[in-house]
Design goal:
6 helices; alpha+beta
Length: 199
């Protein structure tokens, strides 16, 4: 299976999940406005993966979320295939909150160079060091915000990631017209992570 197919299926499932108007409620009982945008990353990925399985049961029957890496406490966001064909790390790029105010943790989640922050940038190095035969990729889904289009954050990510790993071409799908008043448009982006660059 090619990464462009996974990306297209992920984007389509995200749109369909959002159209269902899911509402995230915290453990303390705070309810956010309907839509996929306010959901934490793990919850959003679960909703999207469930929809992908529903839409393409023959393709994603063996897809799993939060799979432990060998000899590590860390988990891979999405593993596809049995035997494994793809290890995919997923990050959400959300620079505004449900309250329509800036949230700069979204930039850190994508661009932080510090391993402790578990950013998309850090995921690239982790995947490149993975001694497995399966293919590896980073997928970022994100939402546009006033004066902060997600495409600019993606461009910055590519510049930094290419200094650390051999990053494949950018694949992308846009979305718009989502139900949440803040998280209305954006895109899904993915790159194959091939290896560490030569010294």
């Amino acid at each position: 299976m090619e990464l462009k197919t996974i990306l297209a299926d992920f984007a389509d499932a995200l749109r369909q999940v959002d159209a269902d108007g899911p509402q995230h409620t915290t453990t303390k009982g705070r309810a956010y406005q309907p839509g996929i945008g306010p959901h934490p990353e793990d919850a959003a990925v679960k909703l999207v993966l469930d929809k992908m399985r529903h839409l393409h049961p023959d393709v994603y029957a063996h897809a799993r979320a939060q799979v432990p890496y060998p000899n590590s406490k860390q988990k891979c966001d999405l593993v596809i295939g049995e035997p494994v064909q793809w290890f995919i790390e997923i990050k959400m790029a959300r620079v505004y909150g449900d309250n329509n105010r800036p949230d700069d943790t979204g930039v850190k989640d994508i661009l932080s160079p510090f391993a402790v922050d578990r950013s998309a940038l850090g995921d690239c190095a982790k995947l490149a060091n993975l001694a497995r035969d399966a293919r590896r990729a980073v997928l970022i889904y994100g939402f546009d915000a006033p004066q902060r289009p997600v495409a600019e954050l993606i461009a910055a990510f590519e510049i930094l990631a290419r200094q650390q790993v051999l990053l494949g071409e950018r694949l992308q799908e846009s979305f718009k017209g989502l139900v949440h008043p803040v998280f209305k448009s954006g895109g899904v982006f993915a790159w194959e992570v091939r290896a560490l660059p030569s010294p």
